[in-house]
Amino acid sequence: MPFFPKLRPYILIGLFLSLFLSLDFFSDNFTNAATPTTVAPVSGSALTQGVTKTVLDNGLTVLTKEIHTAPVVSVQVWYKVGSRNEGTGENGISHQLEHLMFKGTSTRPVQFGRLFSALGSQSNAFTSYDETAYYGTVQRDKLEALLTLEADRMEGALIEPDQLTSEKRVVISELQGYENSPSYRLGRAVLRAAFPNRTYGLPVGGTKADVEKFTLSQVRNYYQTFYSPDNATLVVTGDFTTAPTLKVIKDTFGKVPKRAKTVPPKGSVSVPSNTPAKKEPIVLKQPGSAALLQVVYPLPDVKHPDVAAIDLMDGILTGGRSSRLYQDLVESGLASSVSASAAELIEPGWYEINATAAPGQELSRISSVLQQSLTKLQQQPVSNEELNRAKTQLQASFILNNQDITSQANQLGYNQTVAGDYRFIEGYLAAIAKVTPADVQKAAKTYLDPAKQTIGFFEPTQADGKPGTSNAGSGRTAENFSPGKPVDPAELAKYLPPATSATTASKQSLPEQFTLANGMRVLLLSDRSFPSINLTGQIDAGAEFDNIQKAGLASLTAGNLMNGTKTKNALTLAKSLEDKGASLGFSPSREGVAIGGQGLSANLPILIETLADVVQNATFPADQLELSRRRSLIGLKAQLDDPRGLGRRVFQQAIYPENHPFYSFPTEESLKAITRDDLVRFYQEHYRPDTTTLAMVGDFEPAKVKALLNQAFGKWQAKGKAPILNLTSVPLPQSQTRLNKVIPGKAEAVTYIGYNGISRKDPRFYAVSVLNQILGGDTLSSRLGTEVRDRQGLTYGIYSAFAAGVNPGPFLIQMQTSPQDANKAIASAVALLKQVRDQGVTEAELNTAKRSITNSYPVDLANPSDVASIILDNSVYGLSPTEIREFPNRIQAVTMTQVQQVIKDLINPDKLVIVTAGPNA
User: Locate the Peptidase M16 C-terminal domain: which residues (predicted)?
Assistant: First the structure.
């Protein structure tokens, strides 16, 4: 259950989007007009149309919105309490309570994560500065069950001594994991200095010192004070009927009594936003991988009339590659990355700018250039082109980030809880449309005042980023451990609210699949319910084609595709997309290069034309290659300094032999050895239409898309035969192997346990998926999660997975622990594997796991972006086009005999590779 200490502006000021949009801006006319001189405003009243607000007698605010595009519903409960409300010695208590809310109630004394999993609910929670929210999305027949569970824990949460003790350990594990990040440590120091008298200056998750001291009465009192219905908002969106649903809500939540306040809310000390901040820079000299800069400026609260201009100012500064700070800092070679966010909250917040230095660049120089950029913004009005681009990007991001009902409910809950009115967005969007260049300049002068800034530098003391090896690194784990009996699903079932009538399975539409004359495969699935385009694809040009001497070549090639073509330079390419609020990118992975694009319906032509241009005409400018190489070197150092990244690298290299494509990882030497000629050669050999698959889901007419594709890709021809890989089979280790890697300056260890597994096309995949759901597929409901996290409190997160791709990938268990707890947690996990190997699973576990997977699957299908990924993956893996429809049936058909066989085939506790990376215990 993560907390979210920082939120991007489009999340902070969420847009709840109605599905009834009748705007020319979103028309499906496939025209490419020049950048307009004005931007068509989005109507706020249309965006909140259909929301019903009800306030129950006990003060609970209920927001309902019917959206009948998929047979799913989202239920969210937002409490108006976060770190802002914490008193002295209570830092992190909101977050601690969030964890305890999953530990059961007086009427249901079971882990709620298991109940949610049994319903097939995609559930979680988060804590932030002003709010704590709990959310779940399920098939529509589970709506009443989800409402019953949320009402139950609003009133009857069990907060007992043993639970508090174990969950304190879990929270501390979570906090220590964040301590591994230099940027987290820098941000904590800067905010503390910027807001010395306000709880906004304290970390949302708390501090280890405070968490260790929480008492039972303290946490119970906090729950009684803030988890009252009159301090909460219930949001329900999706496929339901309002009147009967409101009756259920009144029958469940309406019975929860309004609580008498036992203590007054302890908010932060209100400090005017113009209070001078700390002048001298904060300097942290600690182990790390890269030099970091963070600058914070005070901002007003979310309801202030300047908020719209501030958000557009942020877009002009950091909204994409064409933005001012990207051009001034990243394109100049000073920084490897730059980002910013505006925290606009119940009380005055802040604007935060972050930059990571490029290799060899001084933070003082970056700070100076940053200040010059901000001064220029203050002294000269922005152009209409820049302002319109920022407006378009902001409006498009709201729409594209709210395609699914969960996100829409999230925006409703945020606006009601933090801004005080779900209709807040109406005034906000109207204000965005009216912002002028003078307004942006005024905002920059008012809020980017150097006299009010707090600046921090992180200067790494470990220059080479190379980890050490501990001498405790071989042999088996030293502890013996006998796990308790698995939780009986039958025992769980008596606490599970019943579903209503079974959902009638609506037949999932199948994509239209065809192949262009040049061999490029295309999958199209028209969905006219939302004015968006979700484009995804894969080119078989991944890191599996790297060799050890030039490891990183596939990644550098993909990273340079958008750096220029024969007719457009990098900035022109970026502006052509960003002017429309569209995005297109390439993400290299082991087995391919992923294509990802999004835009409004009218943006489809520019997405296709840009994609076609870069895959056929990329020019790989030498200066851009050098900039991207430096960014890759910084990324490499960050990976070696991160227990997760280093651990996975060492784990994989212990499983696969040196001649296997899954063995190679970039090194400083290999990245420096790659030439521009290498990129051009790799591009010519591996970027081919006959190894490219493209999938699109969204608001389009397939016939028009086919015409566009033929026109854009018709001249792209493959030469010769496509490169192929000859993979040798990978045997299991002969015995258990243990490796430890020490990274100085870390607080938490990360462990990987496993060996080589199976491919996605392996007929055992469905049985393996069911087995994995039981073993570690869900941190709160699986055997691993129940034992290692929930009962023993040894880890914040533990899960297992079969990384099944085109080729067999690893079976792995991953967990995060304190270094002192690593051996005990490893022994526990290995013992659980032996338990499964020796005793198998029960029939009740099998049936529960199958229901959990199949009940959750429709939630994935309700998100157009997820659907695009599913149909693409199915095609790339060589599965039938009907797989998207048949997958739940194949899971449901798994038998106990099949699961017993995959346990025999694939669970080998005596042949594990165990890698732990982190501090030296």
Answer: 213-394, 674-852
Q: Are residues 710 and 743 in the same domain?
A: no
- Total Cβ atoms within 10 A of residue 176: 21
Parallel, antiparallel or unpaired: strands 532-539 and 692-698: antiparallel
Residue 424 belongs to some domain of the structure = yes
How does pLDDT run across 462-501, given as a tens digit for each residue? Answer: 644 455 555 443 333 334 556 767 777 777 888 989 888 6
Angstrom distance (rounded) from CA 620 to CA 679: 8
Helix (H), strand (E) at residue 235? strand 232-238
Amino acid at 28: D
What is the C-alpha separation between 334 and 778, in angstroms, rounded? 42
Give me 11's structure tokens. 């999340």
Instruction: Judge whether 343 and 349 are in contact, CB under 8 Å.
Output: yes
- Buried-state track 534-563, b at ≥16 Cβ within 10 A, e below 16: bbbbbbbbbbbbbeeebbbbbbbbbbbbbb
Local structure of 540: helix, strand or coil? coil
Neighbours of 681 (CB within 10 A): 13
Q: State the pLDDT at residue 123.
A: 93
Residue 485 lies in a domain: no
Q: What is the CATH number of the domain that holds 706?
A: 3.30.830.10
Q: What is the mean pLDDT of residues 405-420?
A: 94
Same domain, yes or no, for 292 and 256? no
The rounded distance, in Å, linking the Cα atoms of 412 and 14 is 7
Integer Cα distance of 227 and 234 in angstroms: 12
12 pLDDT tier (thresholds 50, 70, 90): very low
Q: Are 816 and 749 in contact (CB under 8 A)?
A: yes
Report the relative pairing of strands 52-55 and 61-66 from DSSP bridges.
antiparallel
The backbone torsions φ and ψ at residue 451, rounded to the nearest 5 degrees and listed phi first, read: -70, -20
771 and 647 in a single domain? The answer is no
Q: In what order do the strands lie in the sheet with 810-817?
A: 468-469, 737-742, 913-918, 749-756, 810-817, 795-802
- Angle at the Cα of 532 from the Cα atoms of 531 and 536, rounded to 5 degrees: 160
Give, for 165, the enclosing helix (H) or strand (E): helix 161-179
Q: Using an 8 Å Cβ cutoff, are 345 and 302 in contact? A: yes
Full-model pTM: 0.92
Give the residue ranges of DSSP H helices in 568-688. 570-578, 604-617, 622-640, 643-655, 668-673, 676-686
CA atoms 397, 48, 533, 28: torsion sign:
negative
What six digits make up the tokens of 677?
């000629």
Residue type (1 letter), 519: G
Whole-angstrom Cα distance, residue 779 to residue 731?
Answer: 29
SS3 state of residue 96: helix
* Three-state SS annotation for 880-892: CCCHHHHHHHHHH
Range of the domain at 206: 45-261
Distance CA 230, CA 67 (A): 26
Q: Rounded to whole angstroms, how far apart are CA atoms 69 and 668?
A: 50
Residue 527 and residue 623 in one domain: yes
Q: Does the residue 479 lie in any domain?
A: no
Positive or negative torsion for Cα 473, 479, 485, 489? negative
Q: Is residue 488 part of a domain?
A: no
Domain identity same for 369 and 303:
yes
Contact of 517 with 713, CB cutoff 8 Å = no
Q: Please name every residue paired with 341 in a beta bridge, in sequence order, or none if there are none.
A: 352
pLDDT digits (tens, 9 = 90+) for 109-142: 999 999 999 999 999 999 999 999 999 999 999 9
Spell out where 464-608 has E strands. Answer: 468-469, 512-515, 521-526, 532-539, 583-588, 593-600
Instruction: Kindly report the number of other CB atoms within 10 A of residue 64's CB atom.
Output: 23
Task: Give 575-619 pLDDT, tens digit per residue.
Answer: 999 999 999 999 999 999 999 999 999 999 999 999 999 999 999
